[in-house]
Fold each of these.
Amino acid sequence: MSQMNRRRALQLLAALGTTGLVAGCGTDDEGEQAPTGSPIKIGLVAPGSGAGKTIGEDIVNGFELYLATHDQRLGGHPVTLIKADEGDNAKSGQAAVNDLLKQGVLALTGVANPIVMSGIRDIVEQARVPLIGSNASPVSLQSVVYIWRTSYVLDEPGRALGAYLRRRLPAGSRVVIIAPEGGASIDVVGGFRQGFGGGDPRISGEPIWTDPTANPDDNSYAADIRQALNRNPTAIFCHFSGTAAIQFIRQLRRARPGYTGPVYAPGFLTEGNVLNEVRGVLLDEERLLPGTIQTVSNYSADLNNNANRTFASAYRKTYNVSPSTYAMASYDAAQVLDRAIRIAGANPTSQQVNLALGKVGQIDSPRGLWQFNQPRTPQQRWYLRTVQFDGRLLSNVMLNEIATLG
């Protein structure tokens, strides 16, 4: 998705109604137009190809939407957004960040892959340029000064869902855990076992670890799913995203004997374009087949608050799809930078912006109010969602709030 220009932004404002948009987004705490500052550069790191491409597109879209609806400015300064492809490993991520730093960016944002985030940590800290990450946040990323995240720590969705299911599942239940081996799954599954209780007899055996390949084929998970079903589960907890999520859902629904019990997962499982891709195995003549899919996330596109009504409406009008948590967190990263750059003053340096990030206070976000905690991640609510029809669209529909973490 190419960066939206000023003409497109004005068209969007006209479609939405300028007054409603400004009220919902709140560019300036005083409601006054900020003075024009000197131009600044912001570097956005996101995957531009491969298995993470759709997540990268959401990250870019969320940030660009905020700029388009705020006159292409952050903190009163005209913004040039420079994008770099993070690739799929630490070395490609490091090359992307180094290239952006050479171009004199005031701050960085984005980053989808936890491996990339860990790989660029030292570069960012040594450069003393703040990074407002909008997705990747591994548990191991601690004691950082210049890295902030508007998403969540990777063990948190598992912790929230594990604690919820510990209270809800009856005695005698059998929960099977299945996830790709290594990487983010260690954090996610570890969080779930912590929340549920690692020694709880309702967890059926050790986790089933699948091949972590980024591009699974139509048969990649068949043997692992058979192993899971042989344990006769009453519930499955899994962790897949993007292409892997699409293949896992398809292969689970096609497995024989069929599984019609509930599937629980972090929101990655059904985010972005996943539901469109698996529609054929979830429906029979436009009716949902037996077997619920419930996910936990820090965001649901149907949340009923002013900030989300404004954001979700603008996102749908611009991109013709509902926003994902990836897009929302990137939008919030822009909102956080907007406020921090304003606090930093007329001629902000990267170090001044980093100090100002600690003073931004509560963020009126589409996910609900949140604020940074001491580890520079959000203290925020978590929501249980279920896959069902929202009008004619197959969507993640919010059921209830289940935790506050951070």
Note: The radius of gyration is 21 Å.
Amino acid sequence: MEQLAKILANQSGVVSRRQALSLGLEPHDLRRLVRRRDLTPLFPGTFVDHTGVPTWIQRAWAAVLFCAPREPDVDCLGSALAGRSAVRAADGPGRGEEDGPVVVAIARDRRLVAPSGITVVRTYGLDERVQWNLGPPRMRYDEAALDVALACAGELDAVGAIARAVQGRHTTARRMQDALTRRSRAPRRAFLEAVLADVAAGSCSVLEREYLERVVRPHRLPVGQRQLPDGTLSGVVYRDTALGEVLVELDGRLFHDTAEQRDHDHERDLDAAVEGLGTVRLTWGQVVGRPCCTAAKLSRILVRAGWPHGRPCGTSCGWLAAA
């Protein structure tokens, strides 16, 4: 029982049937512990050491233990948290979603039918991609965060997943670039490669491109002068887009601004106001997530400055709702 207590302590109060039997317990010993409520079944063949609602980390441990190979000669677990579950484990208690199934990775050549509450993904190179020394074992953060971004339904959600990964300081854009390079197949590869390259370089060229392709050209808005040097009271700055008395600045930062960054932006806007210019600052959400609505609002601003009207890009254009 002392060895059982040690395993429970190391695994957040969770143990598998296989682990318990390897300690010398008999099946009737396990049944007795369950009757006495010293152990409570979670997933088939896994138990937790209390009768209350299991925590997320306990469900994660139970999912990994359930998915471990059953062969008696296999010493390692052979399964690990993957995707959003690996990211959730790395972020720590109270940070991240706790609803939904636990995502577990197993080797590509295995077959496993998982119960409700577990999503199994089969992957190549499992041994090299997992941090087996962590509890529970989990995919390396670069790999897991990239899986989350690749699984997103839209490009803006994928950008948000990258932003959260980099902001959490568990990885860098360059390490995620390397992880993406190792993938033979990846949806939206070109877009994500460009976004990661931007983050690594500290630029916002992708957002500038998306602004032209999604907001300006489809809605017949004026392109304006791009990267226009402007001598201000604070020195020479480069305006992303100058449209007469209207400046459009593209904020390509993917994570929370520091006080210094916010101060720098406001100083640029104040310098523009001194010169009688108005600044419109656009973010990823406005350009990639709501381009038609953004175009409609920007057109109204430009019309007041003497520019011609833009127009909807089609019958389903969000311009019509924003106009």
Note: The chain has 15 helices and twelve strands.
